[in-house]
Design goal:
- This protein is an alpha/beta fold.
- 44% of the residues lie in helices and 14% in strands.
- It contains 16 helices and ten strands.
- A six-stranded mixed sheet has the order 1-2-10-7-8-9, sandwiched between helices. The protein has a four-stranded parallel sheet with strand order 5-4-3-6.
- The chain is globular.
Length: 375
């Protein structure tokens, strides 16, 4: 094994804050674990960072390591961010469908190279493995979610939450809420709960969106299911098949799997922005959406006003103010299904008009043209 001076971990301890607005809306105590503050902008910094650090510590020639990742989303960005922190090169291969914004962010984070190949992730990944990785003796493959070292990295989140609750004079949480794409975060949360010995006393609400619900489908059918494609706006949840480990752990732990609509996920995004001044992707907005309209109480009916629920604000970089406002115009109708509570700030700022009228209300730009450019 090659020698390597231990490097600082390429992720940070993130704040745990109690939200008065979301607590009022949900009818219980809501704590936000702010993973959107990680160096890469998402929780991926933990798992991907842990994998990279482990690879360097175990590689026979760590100084020659070059990391390769085929994700044009948050995993690719986390790979480059962590690699730069560890003073190593990282190349990311993305399909042609990857948005220019994400390519720009990956390059800006310090990627050695960003290569666009293929019409989908599978084609990009095949090119990476066969054309790049095989030709680099120091090449190390970085999967987006399905690896034990990634799960170990994500499990540190629960250890932090436990310590932070104790600092606040609290014991354990009654529930944790996290979204599920490939299942890496869910695996880490469940493994972390085991180590903290919270066991079945802490429910885990695993959320997906319609059109990106591979875990829910698998649990319903009693076996892994491969989705024909991803149709949800929450593209960061876009794994057509959830990890085997996530499926297995979900069957043996206190996991409640639920699927929300794109409209609900979008609503969670603009409500969080209005209530806490935090902007996140729809893949994260779905976690927040359950706090409104008594959704959380319906999914976890045993919760009381004193129950403590930790929501993983997983973050994500594929979001702009333009996209957020487009969500409000397209999905603003969902506010008509909500129970009004004027003590919750986002109730007063919620869109109540149709898309055309709302865009005119903005005044300073042509809403229809702006919306079309975002698609």
């Amino acid at each position: 094994m090659g020698s390597l001076t231990p490097s600082p971990k390429p992720w940070i301890e993130t704040p745990l804050i109690e939200s008065s607005a979301l607590s009022k809306a949900a009818g219980c105590r809501i704590f936000l674990k702010l993973e959107n503050l990680q160096p890469s902008g998402s929780f991926k910094s933990r798992g991907i960072g842990a994998l990279l650090l482990h690879s360097l510590l175990t590689h026979p020639n760590p100084h020659r390591v070059h990391f390769y990742c085929s994700s044009g989303g948050n995993a690719g960005l986390a790979c480059v961010t962590a690699a730069k922190a560890l003073d190593r090169a990282a190349t990311v291969v993305v399909p042609f469908s990857t948005k220019p914004l994400m390519i720009a962010k990956i390059k800006n984070a310090g990627a050695y190279d960003v290569v666009q190949v293929g019409d989908n992730w599978k084609e990009a990944d095949t090119y990476l493995r066969e054309e790049l990785l095989k030709k680099d003796e120091g090449g190390v493959y970085v999967p987006p979610f399905d690896d034990p070292e990634i799960w170990e990295g994500h499990s540190t989140l629960v250890k932090e939450v436990s310590a932070q609750l104790q600092e606040k004079g609290e014991e354990g949480a009654d529930a944790m809420v996290c979204s599920v794409g490939g299942g890496g975060l869910l695996c880490g949360v469940l493994l972390g709960l085991e180590r903290e010995r919270w066991g079945n006393s802490c429910a885990v609400l695993a959320l997906e969106t319609e059109g990106a619900d591979s875990l829910n489908q698998a649990l319903a059918h009693g076996k892994l299911v491969t989705l024909p494609g991803i149709t949800s706006i929450a593209t960061s949840l876009g794994a057509t098949r959830v990890a085997q480990k996530a499926f297995e752990l979900s069957k043996t732990h206190y996991v409640v799997s639920s699927v929300l609509s794109d409209a609900e996920a979008a609503m969670g995004c603009w409500r969080l922005a209005d209530d806490e001044r935090i902007i996140v992707e729809a893949a994260c907005g779905v976690n927040v959406a359950v706090c409104y309209g008594w959704r959380l109480k319906k999914l976890l009916p045993k919760l009381t006003p004193e129950s403590k629920v930790v929501i993983v604000v997983c973050g994500g970089s594929n979001i702009t103010l333009q996209t957020l406002m487009a969500y409000r115009m397209e999905y603003g109708w969902i506010e008509g299904t909500m129970t009004d509570d004027e003590e919750v700030p986002s109730t007063l700022s919620a869109p109540t008009k149709g898309a055309d009228e709302y865009s005119k209300h903005l005044g300073w730009m042509d809403g229809d043209e702006w919306y079309e450019q975002d698609q």
